[in-house]
């Protein structure tokens, strides 16, 4: 049976993740963010300009290379949008998909993952897969797959980055169609 996702691992994640998380926290606490998707008292999407976090200049090429491997395209054919997902103890992410606009591929990159902070659950065509989060892991899946994140049962914040990929030139035509 085919898996509903592809996973990749960033080799030097400790150094980069710590720096990105520290920069994110400084900017979040200074109020230099844009927020959207308010559910159950929590903004699920927290946007920060890529130029404000130096470590993203290392992570974004890794994400693009991974996405191009999955889609069979060149990196310069893809655009990449992203947001931070800051899950406090008790938080969940409700089931949803990302196929509202012109996304072809979605994903999550894990920065900080406390034990028992919740798995990513993918759903499609009567199937369900549970993916355990771990720092440095990138999980890519079809934007049409419904997905959710289990409750953060730890006493610490779980920090990840949600990502969408689409075409820079032909936004509504996925590869192979």
List keywords for this structure.
11 strands; disordered C terminus; alpha+beta; four-stranded antiparallel beta sheet; globular; Jelly Rolls; five-stranded antiparallel beta sheet; 177 residues; 2 helices
Account of the protein in words:
- The chain is of the alpha+beta class and 177 residues long.
- It has one domain (5-133, 145-167): q2cbj1_9rhob like domain (Jelly Rolls, Sandwich).
- It contains 2 helices and 11 strands.
- The chain has helices spanning 13-29, 56-71, and strands at residues 5-9, 34-39, 42-47, 78-87, 93-96, 105-112, 120-124, 127-131, 137-142, 146-149, 158-167.
- The strands form 3 sheets. The protein has a 5-stranded antiparallel sheet with strand order 1-9-6-11-4.
- The radius of gyration is 15 Å and the shape is globular.
- The model is unreliable at 173-177 (pLDDT under 50).
């Amino acid at each position: 049976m085919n898996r509903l996702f592809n996973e990749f691992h960033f080799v030097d994640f400790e150094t980069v993740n710590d720096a990105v998380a520290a920069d994110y926290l400084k900017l979040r606490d200074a109020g230099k963010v844009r927020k959207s998707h308010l559910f159950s008292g929590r903004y699920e999407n927290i946007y920060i300009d890529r130029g404000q976090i130096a470590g993203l200049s290392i992570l974004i090429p890794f994400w693009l290379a991974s996405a191009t491997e999955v889609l069979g395209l060149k990196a310069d054919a893809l655009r990449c949008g992203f947001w931070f997902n800051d899950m406090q103890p008790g938080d969940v992410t409700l089931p949803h998909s990302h196929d509202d606009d012109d996304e072809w591929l979605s994903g999550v990159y894990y920065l900080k993952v406390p034990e028992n902070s919740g798995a990513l659950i993918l759903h499609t065509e009567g199937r369900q897969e549970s993916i355990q989060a771990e720092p440095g892991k990138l999980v890519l899946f079809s934007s049409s797959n419904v997905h959710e994140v289990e409750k953060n049962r730890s006493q610490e914040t779980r920090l990840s980055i949600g990502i969408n990929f689409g075409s820079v030139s032909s936004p509504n035509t996925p590869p192979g169609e």
